[in-house]
Amino acid sequence: MKRWQVVREPGASARLNRAAATVGLLAASLALSSCGKTKATGGPAAGATPEVAVVVVQPQRVEISSELPGRVSALLVAEVRPQVSGIIQERLFDEGSDVKAGAVLYGIAPGNYQTACTNATAAVAVAKANLGTAQAAVATAKAAQATALAVRDAAKASLASAKAARSRAEASAVPLRLRAERFRDLAASKAVSQQDYDDVCAALKQAEAGIEGAAAGIEGATAEGARAEAAILAAEADSRRAEAAVQGAQAAIGSAEAGLEAAQTTLGYTRVTAPISGRIGRSTVTIGALATAYQPVPLTTIQQLDQVYVDVPQASANLLRRKRNLASGHLTRDEALQTKVRLFLEDGTPYAAEGTLKFSDVSVDPSTASFILRLVFPNPDGVLLPGMFVRVAVSEGANDQAIMVPQQAVTRDPKGNPVALIVDAAGKAAERRLTLDRAIGDQWLVAAGLAAGDRVIVEGMQRARPGTAVKDVPFAAPGAPAPQPADTAKPAPTAN
Questions:
Q1: pLDDT, tens digit (0-9, with 9 covering 90-100), for 430-472
Q2: Whole-number Cα distances in Å, 358 to 306, 341, 374, 375
């Protein structure tokens, strides 16, 4: 059979003996003390009622607000970047000073840009000169066209006159030709004189010559008209070409003027100006540094700080709770308070000016289950700086029947539930389990568990136990004058 042997640590027996001796001495001293008190007083005092300090719960109007963390950001932020490349020749501001919109901040070497502007100016002058030449060509072509039209009109008149002469000549030749034929037969028979026959033949030949001359005139007038028509067509072609040249010159002027404007704009970019008014930060470049157009690193940054934004994240669950409280009537909406917010600095100091609720974001961040409230605060003295951590009190509404008790009157039971002791109608201490909403200053806002008229024990809770009779006196807040003793003969009514 196996036996077990207890092995004691060396010195353990001595320590146990000393502990037992100490316990015995304590028990003996307690017994002697109790015996002495019994002999001196003859037992506990009979009829002694513990005294407790109470506050009488009364509904009151309380503004409900949430204190939320936030960050300050500038109302306007402008990162100043060059729009042309070149060497920085001058810096015309003091770092940390206030600048006005349009003020020149940097000067970039204008050499090449000034040359381009001069060339563009010359191109505009050349284009305007070309326009003048083209307009003169148009005038010349129109004059030639007018001359050709006049020649054509004259040729038409000559043609008409020649045709009329031929008609007259032909008309006069017909009777002469008939007479010459009759006189030829008569002259053969000696019926008329040879002289008469010769005169008729001469007159006929003269008429035929007139017809031939008129025909030649018609041909000449026709040719002159054709030449005039050709001259007109050539003049019209020259006019069209001249007008096209005018339009080209006008387009060239427009292009040259656009180039000049672009060159002047580019030249103006060598003077880097402030896009907004505000406070300018440090310069990231010095005189002599190379600036590149639209470089990623700004030359400096300007922030408008006479007003600032404060971005505050608020949990979406708080928004839902607030809507439920407003719908149930636990909170009332005060429009004057809804848009006004208070701010506390990093060290807890209240900020002098009130802010305004600008807007609340329309979406919830899924990673934090919160949305952003944007507030605007005046900042005339520049106390609020971008990036500063602050706390903001945002009003949720007003509770017209709020039950408030001092925080020291609320304790926790072994399960962690908030409880308070009250004095009931019989003058005995009673325990109430509470539902707390939030802390406001040094008091709790009680959502459930207390009613108007309840007397809540604030001091003396160690002497009061649930069910024991107590004597209640008004609670005197620290620094307040001592109150008169309460009339315990008339206990506060219990809640219905």
A1: 888 998 888 888 888 888 888 888 889 888 888 888 888 888 8
A2: 16, 11, 6, 5
Residue 88 maps to which CATH number?
A: 2.40.50.100
Q: Report the distance separating Cα 191 and Cα 389, nearest Å.
A: 148
CA distances from 124 to 36, 128, 261, 263 (A): 122, 6, 11, 12
Q: Which of 183, 216, 217 is nearest to 200 (CA)?
A: 183
99 and 128 assigned to the same domain: no
Residue 27 forms part of a structural domain: no
Is residue 376, in this structure, part of any structural domain at all?
Answer: yes
Residue 430 lies in a domain: yes
- Alpha helices, H only, 269-362: 316-328, 335-338
Find the helix or strand (DSSP H, E) in which 435 lies: strand 435-440
Nearest to 397 by CA among 35, 7, 62, 4: 62
213, part of any domain: yes
Residue 262 and residue 131 share a domain: yes
Q: Are residues 175 and 102 in the same domain?
A: no
Q: How many domains does the chain have?
A: 4
Using alpha carbons, select from 104, 110, 94, 98 the residue that is nearest to residue 275.
104
Output Rg (C-alpha) for the chain, integer angstroms: 59
Q: Indicate the helix (H) or strand (E) that contains 208.
A: helix 194-268
- Please choose, from the candidates 284, 280, 278, 287, the residue with its C-alpha nearest in 3D space to the C-alpha of residue 298: 284
The pTM for the full model equals 0.57
State pLDDT tens for residues 199-217.
778 877 887 787 888 888 8
264 in the same domain as 125: yes
Domain with 153 in it: what CATH number? 1.10.287
- Whether residues 340 and 460 fall in one domain: no
194-268 helix and 111-188 helix, angle to the nearest 10 degrees: 170
The Cα 465–Cα 50 span in angstroms is 10
Q: Do residue 171 and residue 247 come from a single domain?
A: yes
Same-domain status, 193 and 286 = no
DSSP string, 40-66: HHSSSPTT---EEEEEE---EEEEEEE
What share of residues in the chain are helix, strand, coil (percent, to 5)? 40, 30, 30
Q: Is 316:371 a contact under the CB 8 Å cutoff?
A: yes
User: Are the CB atoms for 264 and 124 separated by under 8 Å?
Assistant: no
- Domain hosting residue 407, numbered range: 51-61+402-474
Neighbours of 111 (CB within 10 A): 11
